[in-house]
Amino acid sequence: MASRLTTSNRAGWGFAIPGFALIAIFIVLPFFFAFGLSLTDQRLVSPNPTRYVGLDNYRELLDVTVITLEPQRDEAGELIRDEDGNLEYPKVRDITRSDDYPQYSGMREWFRWQSGQNAKVVIASDVVFMKALVNTLVFVMVVAPVQAGLALVLALLINQRIRGINIFRTIYFMPVVVSIVVVSLLWRFIYSGNDGLLNNLLDALTFGAWQPIDWLGNPSTALGSIMAMSIWQAVGFHMVIWLSGLQTISPTLYEAATIEGASGWQTFRYVTWPGLRNTAVLILIVITMQAFAVFAQINVMTSGGPLDSTQTLVFQAVVRGYGKQDISGGATISVILFLLVLSISLLQRWLTRDRR
Amino acid sequence: MARVSLKGVRKSFGTADVIKGVDIEIEDGEFVVFVGPSGCGKSTLLRMIAGLEDITDGTLEIGGRVVNDVAPKDRGIAMVFQTYAIFPHMTVRENVAFGLTIKGVPKAEKAEKVAAAARILQMEHLLDRRPSQLSGGQRQRVAIGRAIVRDPAVFLFDEPLSNLDAALRMDMRLEIGKLHQQLGATMIYVTHDQVEAMTLADKIVVLKDGKVMQAGSPMDLYHHPANLFVAGFLGAPSMNFISVDTRSVDNGLAMVANAALDPIEVATTGRDIRTGSRAILGVRPQYLVPSATPAEGMLHGKVTLTERLGAETVVEVGLNDGSRVIAAFGEDRILAPGTEIGLAFDPRQAHLFAEGDRP
After folding, report:
1. Which of A5, A307, A342, B97, by CA, is between 20 and 30 Å from A196?
2. Which CATH class, in words, describes the domain spanning B240-357?
3. Statement to judge: residues A225 and A315 lie in one domain
4. Residue A41 placed within a domain
């Protein structure tokens, strides 16, 4: 059936086509291109012809298994212990490089734990990817709730009619306007281990008892430091979204609650929060997607280090695709990230669906 | 049940005075309507009684207790808003029970009170619905239910029927009247609709620019307006004002006339009207009757416009002195524009105002 969209509508299509074309060339096409590339061994620049490799790239990234190591014994069957009295285990690489275990070939130790006398070792074919995956998930799980919560608190604070409240609104929103690259550079100075602002501040607050920390150079603090900065940078944006949600709530509802004698908390619980439902769903999904895409901070501040403690999926995709010219590997990571974000978004929508 | 008493109550927003010294006494169980044009401060006054606005000066007593600085919930009041202000995410039952939930009242007691309120308002069948599934009238019923459950000494209504369509408005008006009889509580009701004011009130308070123009029973205000504003505000179509010359004043009766009005004696009712001064004669359109011939009657002019409403005919008459009056005849009449007409009225139904009676 011919619709008005397709008949005698040349001018309309004429206006639409440039936009459609740009979206098709730079978004739709690369999207399918990534799917295609992830099934090949394509390199960025290579004399060799491209080969179809099926799901090899995915296997290469996702292959994880657990091996059990028994402690080593001497001829008498006694357990061998080192000087500290710890049990000694065979080396993992004796297994992964052994011809007896071709299925473990090329894998490396990710982490291990103790199970009785035995050691359980998780080996992965791509440990860096695994670390990036875990870091990204941790980043999302911390940043999404903290940033959303903090933004809500700020929105509630600045949603009051106080003289000069716009100054605070501007201050909280300012980091959003500044490029993340610039912010990251500035925060490198703040986090600096030698004479950084944060160390100096803590030093002053503790009257000199503070031992300076190289925030970005220490594997146990680097990811946390980047998360803190990321939350600070984008909190203003989500604050504004919360604020717009708050302002859609009718003031008479608050007056009705006042007359009924609702306390501040009860007013929030029965009036404000239910009124913010749709806003909350939006913010949750937007923050989750943004957090999964974390890249610039890592690139500027740590380049994934120290000891891969700040590797993330997008950073790895870029490093592989362009740094190592392994464009099919980068594409594979992108596809995995896409599926991850898609499934989490669908899950969130399902969890926050209107049950009425 | 409680008396409400306002003494010298004032409200200022910055330098702007909104309520300029108001004294009102409301008896226990009385239905009082605040009425006035937009911006007269009637809603502000109600919100001050509710505790949603603070009182700049003066005292507010509810049940013999000064409540100027008492929180709204402790004033023994409940309020019904124009926009209903029912919580969209709660069922009718939860909405009605809201105040009790906040207070932490046990479930059984809560259910009992909600059921009682629902019975009074005949909305038992609505209790499990959501506000989005209700009509405007039903929503307002829920809001009234929420007020009833609080068992307040004073009910406050802020233009509760303004968002309803005309037919529904009349039903709800009757229902609010019944509710007052049933509960016997003190009720304060704000409206700009004089029909609501006239039909519901035991006492009407007419406000203008933050001041009380007159307070009294509806018929008292209708038949004995204290000034030109009250006279013009109550009644539809509104009272005709005719500028007249005072020929003589004798023993409380003034002889007045103008180019279109034959000399007639009207009671001065103690107003400052002197021989030779200008005065204003007020006659309600309903009290003007057409005379048999244009030469008879006291007012003479030509018909300029006729509105036939079936049971009533509203006629605009251009008087011979160039001014206009409206007459409402209680029958269907055909009067072509341009027809010469004479209008008669009973001087006892007319009001004479001095120039100084303009508020």
Report:
1. A307
2. mainly beta
3. yes
4. no
Do A196 and A86 share a domain, yes or no? no
- Considering only alpha carbons, which residue of chain A is nearest residue B144? A256
How many whole angstroms separate alpha carbon A48 and alpha carbon B231? 100
pLDDT of residue A98: 79
Strand order in the sheet with A108-115: A64-69, A118-124, A108-115
Ramachandran category for residue A331: left, alpha or beta (phi over 0 → left; psi -120 to 50 → alpha): alpha
d(CA A74, CA A149): 58
A260, B51: Cβ pair inside 8 Å?
no
CB contact under 8 A, A252 and B85: yes
User: How close B51 gets to chain A, by Cα (Å)?
Assistant: 8
Chain B residues whose C-beta sits inside 8 Å of any chain A C-beta: 50-52, 71-74, 77-79, 81, 83, 85-90, 98-99, 101-103, 130, 146, 150
Interchain contact, A260 vs B98, CB within 8 Å: yes
Domain boundary among A78, A97, A124: A124
- Chain B CB contacts of A262 under 8 Å are 102
Q: Is the distance from CB of B286 to CB of B329 less than 8 angstroms?
A: no
Residue A162: domain span: 128-351
How many percent of chain B have pLDDT more than 90? 57
DSSP B309-340: -SS-EEEEEEETTS-EEEEEESS-----TT-E
Nearest residue in chain B measured CA to CA from A254: B85
B77-80 and B154-158 beta bridge pairing: parallel
Q: What is the ipTM of this complex?
A: 0.84
Instruction: Name which of B74, B86, B98 to mutate to probe chain A: the one with the most chain A Cβ atoms within 10 A of its Cβ.
Output: B98
Q: DSSP readout, A225-282?
A: HHHHHHHHHHHHHHHHHHHHHHTTS-HHHHHHHHHHT--HHHHIIIIIHHHTHHHHHH
Same domain, A162 and A298: yes
Determine, yes or no, domain membership for A6.
no
A-chain residues within 8 Å CB-CB of B101? 270
Q: Specify whether A202 is located in the same domain as A321.
A: yes
Query: Tens digits of per-residue pLDDT, B297-342?
Result: 888 999 999 999 888 999 999 998 888 999 999 888 888 898 899 9
In a domain, A208, yes or no: yes
| Chain B residue closest in CA terms to A261 | B73
Shared domain check, A233 and A107: no
* A96 and A211 belong to one structural domain: no
Domain ranges of chain B: 4-233, 240-357
More confident residue, A83 or B22: B22
pLDDT along chain A (356 residues), means of 10: 65 90 93 89 81 85 85 80 81 81 82 84 88 93 94 91 85 88 90 85 84 86 92 91 92 91 91 91 90 90 85 91 87 92 89 74
Residue in B102, B319, B358, B112 with CA at minimum distance from that of residue B227: B358
Query: Which of A73, A103, A124 is at the close of a domain?
Result: A124
- Residue A356 is predicted with a pLDDT of 57
- The minimal CB distance from A259 to the residues B79, B88, B89 is found for B79
Is the CB of residue A166 less than 8 Å away from at least one CB of chain B?
no
**What pLDDT, on a 0 to 100 scale, did the predictor assign at position B168?**
85
Spell out the residues 6+ positions from residue B6 whose beta carbon is closer than 8 angstroms to its own. Answer: B22, B23, B24, B25, B45, B49, B58, B59, B60, B61
How many structural domains are present in chain A? 2
A317 with A247, same domain: the answer is: yes
Q: Does A163 touch chain B (CB under 8 A)?
A: no
Minimum Cα–Cα distance from B96: chain A residue: A260
Q: Which pLDDT score, from 0 to 100, does residue A57 have?
A: 85
- Determine if the pTM surpasses 0.80: no
Which chain B residues are closer than 8 Å to A275 by Cβ? Answer: 88-89
Q: What pLDDT shows up at residue A3?
A: 60
Q: Do A259 and B74 touch (CB under 8 A)?
A: no
Residues A134 and A99 in one domain: no
**Under an 8 A CB cutoff, do B83 and A271 touch?**
no
Superfamily of domain B4-233: P-loop containing nucleotide triphosphate hydrolases (3.40.50.300)
